[in-house]
């Protein structure tokens, strides 16, 4: 891992980290770590095994031995938990909130550290999450902290869910986003915050392409200077 170049993209829920990270990974032809997916899978595993979301004694061994594989192909990545395809199951808002509860437990975070670091392989890695630049990959070559106003993030999520045919209230999404922000930023271990050397990019009012161009300009200045 030591010599593998890493780009980190951290920020609050719905800021566009996954969208940006996937485009960066495609552009540089590097690997991609969606660390939130690991916390989401752990939340699903806890629900399957009847373990409470605040039970650190039960969750810590579950996290250490989490039987998950990410199977990538040209059409995307399938997430397999204990032999079962949970790709779609991990994407709903209930699981997002459950993930942020299990992610607040220090022993769980500790147990998942090595697994996340194992994604660092040549030619490089784009890592998306909350603590990629601060804790998991502190010596990353380029760190981005991507934000957007809570209202813009709720609107984006609303449009995403509406496109999937789901009937949701934007006020409820805004409430969930604010609650998740508070939990992620307020926890004692690896709280959501920008690394000191991160480029802070506010995507409110910016298109996906505009965000990508700004991020790429910053990263290229780090990679090729
Ligand atoms: N700049 C943008 N302008 C408008 N919509 C965007 C922009 N970036 C991303 N989106 C859309 O916003 C939604 C959330 O984006 P995305 O899933 O990438 O966010 P995220 O930060 O990874 O969220 P989470 O942390 O909850 O996984 C998606 O529907 C995505 O298509
Ligand atoms: N590095 C990370 C990544 C995620 N989390 C927690 O998981 C929740 C779900 O993440 P998404 O990015 O998929 O929405 C998130 O709310 C965080 O609580 C984390 O703690 N650290």
Key phrases:
225 residues; alpha/beta; Rossmann fold; five-stranded parallel β-sheet; 9 helices; binds adenosine-5'-triphosphate; binds ligand L45E5XJ5; Cytidylate_kinase_dom
Structure description:
- With 225 residues, the protein is α/β, with parallel strands linked by helices.
- The protein has a single domain (6-223), classed as P-loop containing nucleotide triphosphate hydrolases (Rossmann fold).
- It has 9 helices and 8 strands.
- The protein has helices at residues 17-28, 35-49, 56-64, 93-102, 106-117, 132-136, 150-163, 170-186, 208-223, and strands at 6-10, 31-34, 68-73, 76-81, 84-85, 125-129, 142-147, 199-202.
- Strand 3 and strand 4 form a beta hairpin.
- Helix 1 crosses helix 9 and helix 4 runs parallel beside helix 8.
- The longest helix has 17 residues, at 170-186.
- It is found in: Cytoplasm.
- Its EC number is 2.7.4.25.
- InterPro entries: Cytidylate_kin (IPR003136), Cytidylate_kinase_dom (IPR011994), P-loop_NTPase (IPR027417).
- Belongs to the cytidylate kinase family. Type 1 subfamily.
